[in-house]
Fold:
Amino acid sequence: MDFKNLKAKLESLGYGVMCFETADAAADYLDEKIHDKTVGFGGSVTLEQMGLFDRLALNNEVFYHNRLPGGISKLDICKKANSAQVYLSSVNGLAETGEIVNIDGNGNRISAMLFGHEKVYFVIGENKIAKNLDAAVWRARNIAAPKNAQRVKAKTPCAIKADKCHNCESTNRICRAMSVLWGAPFHSNFEIILINEELGF
Structure:
């Protein structure tokens, strides 16, 4: 995929952008850039597939609620990730028009990505890219959310049928909050890592 136009659009909205042909090259770049920092991870199959937790943990203090050290609760880790110097996440949908869409169950990833870090990295495979905002929202709700519901074994219609969002009222519903970034927030330092491979959901 040619990222030229998307890169230009995202840069016009205040983001830094780096493009890579492979996940390995992107992981090398992030490992080189992030040293001696506290680093928070949002829940992300993309980051897991890239092995970034283990790589960055060699030279940083890393907080990820799916990698709990002994004696620390998931809530405490989420709070530490929220206040880390650097935060990494993927996204559920990236529009070619520049909007970034994310859906959360707990809200820890959405709240953490928006404010307070020295730097935020969004790591995005080409499969997350959609034509416009409506398509990015549709992707987040009907592709990413059902697959994530299946991954966490939620007993929701989308997970059981593996087809689409049913806009359910299940107590197990994992899509409880959605954020849309129309541009980089004021006084922030966001860098988007575009990777020409399919990664995550």
User: Anything to note?
Assistant: The helical segments are 4-12, 23-33, 45-49, 52-57, 74-82, 108-114, 133-151, 157-161. The chain has a mean pLDDT of 95. The longest helix spans residues 133-151.
